[in-house]
Amino acid sequence: MSKTLKLNNGLEIPVVGLGTYKSGKGEVKRAVSDAIDAGYRHFDCAWFYGNEDEVGVALNEKIKQGVVKREDLFVTSKLWNNFHARDKVVPMCKETLSSLKLSYIDLYLVHWPFGFKESASLWPINEGEAAFSDIDYLETWQGMEECVRLGLTKSIGVSNFNEEQIERLIKNCKIKPVVNQVEVNPNLNQKKLIEFCKKHDIVVTGYCPLGRSEYAGTPGFPEPTIFDPKVIEMGKKYKKTPAQIVLNYLVSLGISVVPKSVTKSRIIENIDIFDFKLDAGDVAYLDSCNKNQRVCPLSEFSAHKYYSF
Ligand SMILES: NC(=O)c1ccc[n+]([C@@H]2O[C@H](COP(=O)([O-])OP(=O)(O)OC[C@H]3O[C@@H](n4cnc5c(N)ncnc54)[C@H](OP(=O)(O)O)[C@@H]3O)[C@@H](O)[C@H]2O)c1
To answer: For a pocket test of ligand 1, which of 179, 185, 213 has the largest count of ligand atoms closer than 8 A to its C-beta?
Structure first.
């Protein structure tokens, strides 16, 4: 299994990256430092996560100490939904660069295809449809392309886009998206979307690869596969943890993954997945776990014209 994947602009993305959503202030700096020491070079950030400043402190410290060079790192960030107007994209990207204290990022993603009004709250679940903006993601994309032209980011991509939206974007863009970041875990293996993206030379990055295990047991929430007794048994067979079994399986689908952790031992564990191969029976079992159940359906926004699921 390769440790990097080639993007359609010739650049490479490391297969395993560190997720940073809900990595709290006061702990994300340590997590990013530990991850660099453990060999991570790919960091998945977003303006919405509210912690890019601290991520940036850790990245810059490691660069200053000579542990890594900037060009060794692959840093992703994302444009939040309230800022889909074309003239907002460059300023938001610059704000992220300022928080991260970097002169460029490697990948800038449109976080969701649907926008909210700038005046709405960041997560307007109680504001109804009045909070929705009808700005077309094709307009947003023009701002994303401007970020590349200005050298603020090396590559641009999308997140949570469906096949139809990607096809429409490809037909109407100057710079093709390199990545579609979507939820992928054994409960939602996304094989069809992955195949579609491969056909268009777009790399899929899988988020919630561990099924966001801290929500386990919440009513209506899909049970993360890392707690499945069969997967725990598999772990014993390969002398690996359930998380390593799941991440190895996902990477074998030809995608990159961004497991989040702020726990040093898990950060180390989650990138140590390249030294074994699951046998056909175990792959078949993990394939059979697919239920098309989402950790992140965002059904509160399902009335939006650009809602994608
Ligand atoms: N584009 C999007 O719309 C979108 C949406 C959601 C997420 N994301 C990205 O994807 C990343 C990952 O998704 P996620 O954070 O939602 O969920 P996740 O990575 O599936 O799960 C994270 C949870 O699993 C725990 N964990 C980590 N490693 C483990 C291990 N080896 N064994 C057992 N438990 C383990 C973590 O705990 P500790 O931290 O306490 O160790 C945390 O509670 C995010 O952080 C974010 O960067 C993107």
So the answer is: 213
Distances (CA, A) of 61 to 22, 33, 67, 99, 128: 22, 8, 9, 14, 43
Report the CATH number of the 4-301 domain: 3.20.20.100
Catalytic hit among 21, 40, 49, 137: 49
Please give the distance, rounded to the nearest whole angstrom, from the Cα atom of residue 239 to the centre of ligand 1: 22
What confidence tens digit (pLDDT) does each residue in 104-142 have? Answer: 999 999 999 999 999 999 999 999 999 999 999 999 999
Question: Which of 30, 260, 263, 273 should be mutated for ligand 1, with most atoms under 8 A from CB?
Answer: 260
Q: How many C-beta neighbours within 10 Å does residue 116 have?
A: 23
Q: Residue ranges per domain, the chain?
A: 4-301
Q: Any catalytic annotation for residue 215? A: no
Protein residues with CB under 6 Å of any ligand 1 atom: 19-21, 44, 111, 159-160, 181, 207-214, 226, 241, 243, 258-263, 266, 269-270, 296
Least confident of 69-78, 79-88, 168-177, 220-229: 220-229
Q: Could you give the CA distance from residue 86 to residue 109 in angstroms, rounded to a whole number? A: 14
Query: Cα(115)–Cα(82) distance, rounded to whole angstroms?
Result: 6
Is-contact 94 142, C-beta < 8 A? no
Residue 253: which residues within 8 A CB-CB, separation 6 or more? 184, 189, 191, 194
Cβ atoms of 196 and 254 within 8 Å: the answer is: no
Sequence letter at residue 72: D
pLDDT tens-digit readout, 173-231: 999 999 999 999 999 999 999 999 999 999 999 999 999 988 888 888 899 999 999 99
For ligand 1, the distance from its centroid to the CA atom of residue 173, given in whole angstroms, is 32
By CB atoms closer than 10 A (0-12, 13-18, 19+), residue 298 is: middle
